[in-house]
Amino acid sequence: MTYKQIEASRELRLWIGQVIVPAVSVAAVVLANPDVRRVAEEKAESIKQKFRTKKIRGL
Predict the structure, then answer these.
(1) Element of type H or E holding 47
(2) Which residues contact 31 (CB under 8 A, 6 or more apart)?
(3) What is the C-alpha to C-alpha distance for residues 36 and 40, in angstroms, rounded to an integer?
(4) Quick check: 58 pLDDT over 70?
(5) Which residues contact 30 (CB under 8 A, 6 or more apart)?
(6) 37 and 31 in contact (C-beta within 8 Å)?
(7) What is the pLDDT of residue 54?
(8) Rounded CA gap, 28 and 45, in Å?
(9) 31-56 pLDDT per residue, tens
(10) How far apart, in whole angstroms, are the C-alpha atoms of residue 26 and residue 38?
(11) Does residue 59 have a pLDDT over 60?
(12) Fewest CB within 10 A of the end CB: N or C in the chain?
């Protein structure tokens, strides 16, 4: 393996350990609790609606 490949592998391993695994863990905890899941769904829907209205206004 070249030095560039080794560094790319190291960076990927760090991303997986420090970003992806915690994000998946938080998502699993959020989705496991029905009350939190409902609040998250409402917030996601409001964000979607906000983007839809901005897109229409931009045209």
Answers:
(1) helix 34-58
(2) 37
(3) 6
(4) no
(5) 36, 37, 40
(6) yes
(7) 80
(8) 19
(9) 899 998 899 899 999 999 998 888 76
(10) 15
(11) no
(12) C
Q: Identify the band that residue 57 occupies on the pLDDT scale cut at 50, 70 and 90.
A: low
Token pair listed for 32: 């496991």
Report long-range pairs for 1-4 (Cβ below 8 Å, ≥24 apart): none
The alpha carbon dihedral of 42, 46, 47, 52 has a sign of: positive
Q: Who's near 9: CB < 8 A, 6+ residues apart?
A: 1
Question: Which residues, other chains included, contact 1 with Cβ-Cβ below 8 Å and sequence gap of 6+?
Answer: 9
Angstrom distances, CA of residue 3 to CA of 11, 12, 17, 32, 47: 12, 14, 21, 42, 43
